[in-house]
Amino acid sequence: MKPQDRIRIRTVGNQIRMIREHLEAMQRDAHGLEYAPWRAEVDELWKGVFTNVNKIDPELQPAALESVRELWMTYITHYGVGLN
Asked: How many structural domains is the chain composed of?
């Protein structure tokens, strides 16, 4: 594995941890003032996740995508990505 791929995979992991934290906060305070900014930040984090996965060696991409699949599916199911 190239060092760049190792860094990108670690970055994706960090972004996923941040997304999880934001989603927990959003669930606790769905009608609060912070909901919209958290949602916008989560959307940007997801863009970063998929940008980084796209730059990873194609042989490593399936594993990287599998590592984010469950959280991504939960996110698009509960927050209607693309419906806003």
From this structure: 1
Q: What is the pLDDT of residue 81?
A: 63
Q: In the 8-state DSSP scheme, what is residue 57?
A: -
Using DSSP's 3-state secondary structure scheme, residue 9 falls into helix
Asked whether residue 84 is domain-assigned, the answer is no
Q: Which residues of 28-54 are buried (b: 16+ CB within 10 A; e: fewer)?
A: eeeeeeeeeebeeebeebbebbbebbe
Q: Pick from 51, 55, 50: which is nearest to 72 by CA?
A: 50
CA distances from 75 to 27, 66, 69 (A): 11, 15, 10
Domain that holds residue 43: 3-79
**Local confidence pLDDT in tens for the 84 residues of the chain:** 899 999 999 999 999 999 999 888 888 877 777 778 888 999 999 999 999 999 999 999 999 999 999 999 989 888 776 544
